[in-house]
Fold each of these.
Amino acid sequence: MRIVLLSGGSGKRLWPLSNDSRSKQFLKVLKDPQGKPESMVQRVWRQLGEAGLRDRAYVATGKAQSEILYGQIGNDIRLIAEPERRDTFPAIALAATYLYAMEGASLNETVVVMPVDPYVDGSFFRQLSRLEGALDESAADLALIGVQPTYPSEKYGYIMPGAGHDAGLPYMSVSGFREKPCREDAEEMIRQGALWNCGVFAFKLDMLINILIAYDLPIHYEEMLKRYGSLPKISFDYEVVEKANRIAAVRYEGDWKDLGTWNTLTEEIDSALIGKGIVSDQTSNAHVINELEIPVAVLGLSDVIVAASPDGILVADKALSPLVKDMLKASDQRPMYEERRWGRYRVLDYRRYPDGKEVLTKWIFIAAGRNLSYQYHNLRDEVWTVVSGSGTVILNERKLALSAGDVFIVPKESRHSVRADTDLEIIEVQTGELLIEEDIVRLELQWPEIVQLCPASEGSY
């Protein structure tokens, strides 16, 4: 059995803490068993390890999320990165070709696909092996996990049981699906034995490989990468699930929740205040999550979420908070905060002048022992001021010591990298006519390989 975790999302439902590169699964607002901050993806990765399934797991994601995944989970994670954002059918097809061509998975191997961020207890992951049994016993094209509903939710999709279901079987046949019904319909479907659809399903690898062959699509990973941009932007549900001849589902009766909006997420946050701020005694059922260095005070409000980050500030009634995604449909603001495998950065200021010149100022944190890639930029010049810490900078193959108070000028097309000996803070000022994160040409990632590209001589700047 192989497990493919789907990591995507536009980052708008939990704005302003989430953005296009830091979607909801990366927000460290939960607590691990030791009481330390933990993101949803870190929680799921920990639970997979506790269930003994981590060595079977892969993460399918877009390039924009690769760095933060490495940063939060570690460099050993196996990523299958989309060359560009499409939809779930292309993403799962790419993962299938990777398992088949690069990992040598058998065509009879069971592939389990699931979201990267379900909020469940550890017993959920022990149910995944039941999907393999359901596929074998039912001869179904797909097997799903369905959650036993605890109330008639109008927010979730439902899996409808087939006629004449045998309660003695370890799985049920599926007759169809229903999305977000009204309360009365949900109550009736639950009486009929319907289950919540939690987005977890399994299939035999040969099923999807055969679909790709029938569509004249590549079944080898490298070729799929080349043709990825021509694949249709369509969901796996529409392209595969709705066309499946037979679907089975196994029942899960434990805790499950989708923490996709502020009102559901705050139900699992045990502190009314995260970050700088004050919540008055006259305030009830309010949560403040503040990533800024200035305090936020809430006085006398009830049932509200106040979230503040470099990307913006949200003050919303919890019940209406799911509408924030619709409010931001037209917004194309660049992310002002991002996490990378080496640390994180925050945009402090951005200005565009009448002559077209842009100036962007960043605060950059590089964790001790981590390094930036060896890279250059075609469109911008940079000036670095080292605020604290020490390390090594490589600039055009010259290796130099770096410490607090140093200033480095990095002209466009200059090859450069930095490694932190201690935690390192740098203020970076970029200037140019187009300042975008995509203006990075990476030459090497690992520090030992970077050092080999440079002569042995060292010096001062």
Amino acid sequence: MSRTSADSSRESLDPVALEQASLWMARLWSDDVSEEQRQACLRWRRESPEHERAWQQLQAIDGRLASLPSHAARSELFSSSREVSRRGLLQWGGLAMLLGGLGFGLSRTPQWQRQFAEHATGIGESREVTLSDGTRLRLDTDTALDVSFDADRRRIHLLRGEVLVTTGKAADDRPFSVVTRQGASYPIGTRFSVHQRAESTRVAVYEGRVALGRRADAERVTLDAGQQATMNADGVTPPEPLDTGRLARFEGRLVAESLRVAEMVEILARYRHGVVRYAPEVADLRVSGVFSLRDTDRALASLADALSLQVVYRTPLWVTIQPRDEG
């Protein structure tokens, strides 16, 4: 295969398939792998040509890593203060994105950001951090951030995910901000959340006030308690009423009020590994209730019961919600 065609093949690989392949490979490398798991992996590979391509890509790179010269094997990328096993590297998708990341942008991949950020959570995890000035951070699922405090300023760099910030009560003259790719949020004695999404930043204010400033704009938009807005390439959207159920997600609960199935699936997908899909005919069905984000399988089962649907597990990492088969 020519270099051009090889690069094209690598760049066209689905990142989700790469992460799934890395999880399957890590499972098969475990000491207690069962024959049933081997067969399940084989079925996953046969489900889609994209699955098999991702699997073969990992197999090829694994062979190349095994043949690295000693000086390359000792590089900082593959060494740390704690032992890193081949299985461990694959479990957080490192190898998958080491391969695909050359085409997708390695430093922007979820695995890279979570591994090297100062504070991070995995998919389905949450974490609370108290900073030196008394500020409390609640990191939601799949979140990574760095903290930069010095004599002149206090800054949080939100790399991905969502964080709930409760600023410290003690007097501190240093300016405080939460920085994302789109801009920065400047709180005024407050409690607020910042969500770094693919192409925008969503800010919600629960107490106090927050000023939003885009990187490309010197003007700031101020949000009061009970308001939320989005920063994107076009500017800052007008303030709108707060989504009252959003705060519950930091406590592991999804509060749904006439929520579309498509929207609920999009939220649940952030809290579990793999892929969650739905049949087109169920996308606009609406559901109300309180669902667990700590146990997304239970949430999916509750959704199915409420709307007389069924949840089909093709593998533990591939789930589809569809109309119930009455037959």
